[in-house]
Design a protein that fits this description.
Helices cover 8% and strands 44% of the residues. The protein is mainly β. It has a single domain, classed as Pnp Oxidase, Chain A (Roll), CATH 2.30.110. The strands form three sheets. Strands 1, 2, 3, 6, 7, 8, 9, 10 and 13 form a nine-stranded antiparallel β-sheet that branches. The protein has a two-stranded antiparallel sheet with strand order 4-5. A hairpin with an 8-residue loop joins strand 8 and strand 9. The longest helix has 10 residues.
Length: 188
Amino acid sequence: MAGDIYTASGTKFYISTAAVVSTTDTLSEYEALTWTEVAEVEDLGNVGDVSNEVTAAALGDGRIRKAKGARNGGTMNVVCLYTSPIDAGQQAMMDAEETNDNYAFKMELPDAPPPSGTPTFKYFRGLVMSQELRVGTNDNVMRWAFNIGVNSPQTVDPAAAGVLTARSEAGGSSAPTQTKKEPARATA
């Protein structure tokens, strides 16, 4: 049986308040950081590893052989609505673009299981490679576009069921039960 589907509506995006070292990869390291939410996000582009294609041609049958090479975290395009005054998270993205430092990023997905579960969090680090203002035409809302060059695998803290209180037949509640949360995993 297929699970529930979720829209992107309600997704939140954050940038760390300070640059991070290139070894920041574990859930505990990401959770120890301080975050600033980037507000007015309209679109979070693709993020995730893609393997480089490695090829070789065999003379005997004239066929190209393919193998997977180095993994690339890609470039994530983040589009935000232009606001005045500028949002603190958007300003943090602009400040990060002016450096050569890696920052940590966090996505909070709107997939918490009902009634009181926790959502999926995805973490990664990268460089804010660009900040571009998209003005457009007369009837266009101005936007900021940021490109993040991803330099790490994603660390995923998956959604988990929350605390449920069992009800007795008399209407009282018994001790709460907790569904065990899976340990975080890095996905390549």
